[in-house]
Amino acid sequence: xxxxxxxxxxxxxxxxxxxxxxxxxxxxxxxxxxxxxxxxxxxxxxxxxxxxxxxxxxxxxxxxxxxxxxxxxxxxxxxxxxxxxxxxxxxxxxxxxxxxxxxxxxxxxxxxxxxxxxxxxxxxxxxxxxxxxxxxxxxxxxxxxxxxxxxxxxxxxxxxxxxxxxxxxxxxxxxxxxxxx
Amino acid sequence: xxxxxxxxxxxxxxxxxxxxxxxxxxxxxxxxxxxxxxxxxxxxxxxxxxxxxxxxxxxxxxxxxxxxxxxxxxxxxxxxxxxxxxxxxxxxxxxxxxxxxxxxxxxxxxxxxxxxx
Lengths: 181, 117
Description:
The complex is a heterodimer. By secondary structure, chain A is mainly alpha-helical. Chain A has helices spanning 2-20, 30-39, 65-72, 82-94, 138-154; strands at residues 96-100, 118-122.
């Protein structure tokens, strides 16, 4: 009895550590699982196997839960490869375009005009999706929110403020079901 | 005694590799290049939406929603929020519409690669 209790405690400790860790290592090697099955009898109520519990954990979104849910969600995800997407997005973010335009106009009695335009385009990381505006940064967003708050206060109703444009219409039409009457 | 030893060995075998396997996560908000790329992809998607005809806009919009869903599933809600916000920005900001064909082509490539359509 003493030996069995010790075995159960040690096994539970090992499994608990695996369930709370953030790694993507398999829960336990197959050989270990088989060994457990042979050691622990089916009618032994002292141990509940929780194998595979770690697969759905929050720390494994990229590899486990996310992909499975994506596949089950009406197959809208298709063949989404998170590693490829991460690489492409990072390369897109790394793409720097430096545009320098220097116009030097030297005017004297002989009217010489020298115009130099230097355009340097540096592409880093082999970007896949062109060079696009990265949108407002969070500082810009905060400033916009502050301006909106001031305008809203002046109008005594933030809901009636015309600071913000209306969002684009929902798509496709009827995508959102109206609430029941 | 041998059983105790075997149990301890089992505990060490299972616990140590998992504790050691803790690589830095990618795709988080700490990954600056990735988040900037997400913003650019969002703006690109928004521009593709703005450039599309009214008949094509629902399809582009649905594609953006599906991409945002995938981003949320794989990289978290913060990345999906950034993508969606950038999409909205891209639909409304001033940009040179002579680049519309490029934006639409890039969005279609993105859609084909990651949504399989």
